[in-house]
Amino acid sequence: MSTRVAVVTGGNKGIGLAIVRALCKQFPGDVYLTSRDVGRGQEAVESLTSEGLKALFHQLDINDLNSITAAAAFFKEKYGGVDVLINNAGIAFKAADPTPFAVQAEETLKTNFTAARDMLTHFMPLIRAGGRVVNVSSFISRHTLNNCSPELQQRFRSEDITEDELVALMQKFVDEAKRGEHKQGGWPETAYGVSKTGLTTLSMILARRLSKERPNDGILLNACCPGWVRTDMAGPKAPKSPDEGAITPVYLALLPPGATEPHGKFVSDKEVQPW
Ligand code: NAP
Q1: 193 lines ligand 1 (CB under 6 A)
Q2: Cα(93) to centroid(ligand 1), Å
Q3: Most CB within 10 Å of its CB: which of 8, 115, 260, 266?
């Protein structure tokens, strides 16, 4: 059997690094720490080496399609596929950041939704039977959903929303934010929240597609919240350590062979949450 391989995006620090650390200890195969910056990524690999752990490195900037396709080609060539993909990379503007909301909306959606989707578009065909795909979303995705207009909530919760419709809705948010009309459009005032609502909804759409198109492959795909975690993104007051934040993503990545659930769910503290 070929060597199994796990890939983590945004692995150079924070929750991503903690996920790589946990996978190095628990995943029976090669574990790739990927990051957009080669220097920061290699430094993180060395920090794990000093803990006695062996992670491998590959450059991967999810905002750069060439970087995504080059990485996908590398894993296809070297391993013939991918067994675990954890889409962890993400950004958030600080609450006090004076950047105009329209710019925050465009930038945040670009990384947290569009680039995460690009990753899935190019990596899903590589996911081997029995594979696990984990999208690191946030509780804020659900909170944001609950604060959308009833019409938007209905679409995000519907079983028949398509990927194209979701992409159009995310673009509508950005366009309306640029015109200062997002509130009239039914959106709450949070670019990060909308981006993660999109990512959680996308996870559900792709899971339904997997069940339909690859029903016998036993692939499980879920979105999750790591909790509120002390990282550069969330700051020092958050209650969870990065290693604690990694617990749910890693649980989903290591769901045992033959497991049939959770699939297409939003999971927090290892529990399926209502959507
Ligand atoms: P973090 O410490 O800021 O780390 C974010 C990681 O994402 C960094 O490695 C960063 O790389 C990487 N990244 C950003 N843009 C990227 C790109 N275009 N390509 C590749 N990597 C990119 O944040 P964190 O708290 O660990 O967050 C990790 C994930 O958890 C995010 O998706 C976040 O939304 C989610 N989350 C966090 C919390 C929390 O409380 N911390 C709560 C809910 C959800 P650089 O170092 O190069 O910038």
Answers
A1: no
A2: 11
A3: 8
- CA separation for the pair 264, 275 (Å, rounded): 11
Among candidate residues 92, 89, 82, the one with its CA nearest the CA of residue 60: 89
- What is the distance in A from the centroid of ligand 1 to the CA of 69? 21
pLDDT in tens, 232-260: 999 999 999 999 999 999 999 999 999 99
Domains and CATH numbers, the chain: 5-98+111-139+194-273 (3.40.50.720)
Query: Counting beta carbons within 10 angstroms of the beta carbon of residue 271, is it exposed (0 to 12), middle (13 to 18) or buried (19 or more)?
Result: exposed
Centre of ligand 1 from the C-alpha of residue 233, in Å: 7
Taking alpha carbons only, the member of 125, 132, 124 closest to residue 28 is 132
Q: Which residues contact 16 (CB under 8 A, 6 or more apart)?
A: 8, 9, 10, 33, 35, 86, 88, 89
Whether 108 lines ligand 1, by a CB cut-off of 6 Å, is: no
134-166 confidence digits (pLDDT tens): 999 999 999 999 999 999 999 999 999 999 999
Q: Ligand 1 pocket test: pick from 8, 9, 13 the residue with the most ligand atoms within 8 Å of its Cβ.
A: 13
The pTM (predicted TM-score) of the whole model is 0.98
Confidence of residue 2 (pLDDT cuts 50, 70, 90): confident
- Is residue 10 a contact partner of residue 61, using CB atoms and an 8 Å limit? no
To which residue do tokens 């039977």 refer? Answer: 129
Q: Is 251 a catalytic residue?
A: no
Nearest-atom number in ligand 1 for the CA of 111 is 18
